[in-house]
Amino acid sequence: MVSIYANMKKYNVYISKEARADLKEIADYIADILKAPYTSKQYAFGIVEEIKHLSKYAESIPISTQKSILYYGNNARRVNFKKTTIIYTIQVNTVIIQRIIAGSMIIE
Q: How many domains are there within the chain?
């Protein structure tokens, strides 16, 4: 059996300081304000898993045309996890997670 991932490039993934703070803020909001600590852990875990998957398919997502995304670089891309947007760029062999924000904050 041949793997469909056999010739795909594998990327290192780096999460910026800002994105780490975003993730903590989202988790804290769900745990403290919404009073759902278990949901908070599950949601944060889901975001991290989505980020990990970018190591395999980051380049398959098209470069964004939205100004609010391109603010993070001329090759910025976005992927969604539920109602959250993960904004990233690719530099050589590294996916750089720039921000993790509410999808509703994206301006066309």
A: 1
